[in-house]
Amino acid sequence: MLNIDAFELGPLQTNAYLLSNAERTKGFVIDPGMNPKSLFKRIETMEIEAIVLTHTHFDHIGGVEELRKWKKCPVYVHDAEADWLADPKKNGSARWPELGGPIVTEQAEYALDDGQTLELLGEKFRVFHTPGHSPGSVSLLYGDKLFCGDVLFRLSVGRTDLPGGSQRELMESIHGTLFDLSDDVKVYPGHGKSTTIGFEKLNNPYV
């Protein structure tokens, strides 16, 4: 079983997740956001196998290029947002310049596809395409642990008023994909505290 460490990064307190082996010598990062100093300090002596993006909004990608160059690791993203990494208008960094200015990164090395099994650190992760918050949003299932970016939060859901957002698609992703998972699946969201699928089914006022 992999270790899971969370880091609140940047002005929007975006959750980045570090998954590492038992010895904490190798790992990979989900959504390395802005101002990633605390994350980088933790992985200083660690081999990083990959960067996996749940989506490419600016607050989730602020540390991508620095981390990729430092650790020489590839980036994974859904094809629907393949060109967002290099486009500040699409990734939103041009919309809120007061939060850090435009963010431009190189293209991702690998694509994430719905139904794909991603193998990292000797473990398997199931990829779900869960659009709505953004066109290329994905969720990763590892055993009974789900990393869902900004699709589902504790007692809330992702906003749909940004470019490419869709309330209908978001509800389809939640009800048609995430809520089909076991109630005891632990949800690690892009912002805020963790929760479970069962708790959100019973208590989330937005679904």
Automatic annotation (TrEMBL):
One of its GO terms (molecular function) is hydrolase activity. Its cofactor is Zn(2+). It holds the Pfam family Lactamase_B. Residues 13-191 form the Metallo-beta-lactamase domain. Keywords: Hydrolase, Metal-binding, Zinc. The keyword Metal-binding applies. It catalyses: 3',5'-cyclic UMP + H2O = UMP + H(+); 3',5'-cyclic CMP + H2O = CMP + H(+). It comes from the Bacteria. Counteracts the endogenous Pycsar antiviral defense system. Phosphodiesterase that enables metal-dependent hydrolysis of host cyclic nucleotide Pycsar defense signals such as cCMP and cUMP. This is MBL fold metallo-hydrolase. It comes from Paenibacillus hemerocallicola. The lineage of its organism: Bacteria, Bacillati, Bacillota, Bacilli, Bacillales.
